[in-house]
């Protein structure tokens, strides 16, 4: 078998495997909706009823809009691109303002990294405390923490302390740079019009907006992934400055690897793409390009390792988790591969790094044998669903942490965000639908074009996350690749429709046009039937307590104990909205009122009456929210200060234990303070203030508006797709040439697009 034949076989096998995996993700995304109870009462058909019709309607809208974009004149392209960028910047600026105003702060790993960076700046002389619990385990975060340290150092040099706001602003810039590289990549591969199409998809996708707060490696690595793909593919595609482009790609990839290791996946895709590239004919040139990439990557790795060691407190200690830990944890079928304390404790229990690796490998073999092929296949499907199929990637729980949660928050990430969640899920399903069509069209085309490298990188990401720990946010850095393939899929679908010679004849038939109209009217009819059937639920039945979180500090990493007589804890908070319940995260299922006194005090130190106390278990962890039910506390014109006070009345065998934030330098809740036995603590109590009332999750008005919106859009699609086409609108004779052909002549014919009615 000659080299050309081997390349074709490899390419087809890769695309077929990717087609199978993306098909699974698409089906899972269509028939799963995480927040079912926020929309319809019947959870068994919620997802299908909300998402599948939305996929049909949104797909039709995108086909119409992409057809219109094809008609944009050359001189208007820059104006259209500029307008889209302005809309993106405006929306991001509004969201950033609301987040800063609400004093939202990142939690989990984001907060840990910022906390350590500030500690390096304040007390640790620029060194990471790698003897502490978190940084003793996660050595992969050393380079990123050092980067955040230098950013905070620059911010402080100019006399500011607003680290969170600066990092969120930088996060926006990096997300937009990732979009800019993807835009340039689409222009390189498919022409200027394709770039506008991608930019439009980027604008209406949730990614540029909902992850502004998440200043972590997932978003910081995004521009490195798209940047190295752009310069790598540019080196394959263009003869001029080939070595310069490949060197840029290698540097970007090597630096990006230091921020997040998954950046190596598209770097490997670029290396494989070089061997497959038909435009690079000499083997020696291909070998030189690959050697350059490997050499630069190794050089950056060595320099980074030396640089990071200078910032470690104990340079000889190496208790960090090996990569086998995350693979072992990803094979935990009971926990669906999600991080869990049992697996973390198992790895910690092994004293040396080599013992950790050996123990992890033994556990991996044991779990694979226990699951068997069928069990592992089931776990793979579950992991792909959790990582790729959720439209909002679990962002609602992440954005629950804030001091002054605004009203608009309720309609996006809060208690009234059902419609927003459904839109995110619909967009994710549509994205993978058109990714499927893009892959299918690549399978049908012969040759190994450079666009295949993007598909190869996406396949690598999916396969890697099948093996790794399950985390919904791990897909973030690869979402721009999904949108690139999505745009290609929409364009290919239009091209297939427009180039069909028999389509004009079929669509000219009256019965065919009526069939199209009936199809687009059937969708809202089915939805309306079920909505009408469930309508009494929204008029008569109640959906339980409707919760509006106003302030939330949710952590369960460390706890404090009240056991001796006189022990007392006081947490202050400032609030300017009505509330009627307060919760404390605790290990106690109930409180002995004879042993402990719990009070809520207003700003005049007067107790607020507590009607009763109840408990809510936190998942299956054995921890609880102690809920204090109050009479309605009406909002004040100015922010008012309140205090949660817990006092031990006598010595107890059973202790009162409450959770606190694990940060000494990063103040997660600046509007309040925790006092323990009259001493100010650097931590804050894990608590939440919220307003609950008995009402429907989606009001009657919203229910009716949703139904009318579906009918209106279905009517537009019915008119557009159900009218008789004009002659020469379909068929290869009516072609609108792109404003700028791609660099290779054999691609220019593929970029020709046609006009729908």
Describe the structure.
The protein contains 26 helices and 13 strands. With 757 residues, it is an alpha+beta fold. The strands form 3 sheets. Strands 6-5-9-3-11-12 form a 6-stranded antiparallel β-sheet, with no helix packed on it. Strands 1-13-4-8-7 form a 5-stranded antiparallel β-sheet, with no helix packed on it. A two-stranded antiparallel ribbon has the order 2-10. It is 56% helix and 11% strand. Helix 2 packs across helix 25, helix 11 runs antiparallel to helix 12 and helix 15 packs across helix 17.
Distance between the termini: 47 Å
Write out the strand line-up for the largest beta sheet, numbering strands in chain order: 6-5-9-3-11-12
Derived from helix and strand composition plus strand pairing, the structural class reads alpha+beta
What's the average pLDDT?
A: 81
Counting DSSP H or I runs of 4 or more residues, the number of helices is: 26
Total E-strand runs: 13
Query: Shape, please?
Result: globular
**Level of helix content?**
55-70%
Percent strand: 5-15%
User: Using only CA atoms, what is the Rg?
Assistant: 28 Å
Question: What is the fold's blueprint, element by element?
Answer:
Layout: H1 3-30, H2 46-69, H3 77-101, H4 109-122, H5 133-137, H6 142-157, H7 163-190, H8 192-204, H9 207-210, H10 217-220, H11 222-237, H12 242-259, H13 264-276, H14 283-309, H15 323-330, H16 341-348, H17 353-389, H18 395-398, H19 407-410, H20 418-444, H21 452-467, H22 479-499, H23 503-508, H24 510-539, E1 545-552, E2 558-562, E3 568-575, E4 579-586, E5 596-601, E6 607-608, E7 610-617, E8 624-633, E9 640-648, E10 656-660, E11 674-676, E12 679-680, E13 687-694, H25 700-721, H26 745-748
Antiparallel strand pairs: 1-13, 2-10, 3-9, 3-11, 4-8, 4-13, 5-6, 5-9, 7-8, 11-12
Helix pairs in contact: 1-17, 1-20, 1-21, 2-20, 2-22, 2-24, 2-25, 3-8, 4-6, 7-8, 7-11, 7-22, 8-22, 11-12, 11-13, 12-14, 13-21, 15-17, 17-21, 20-22, 21-22, 24-25
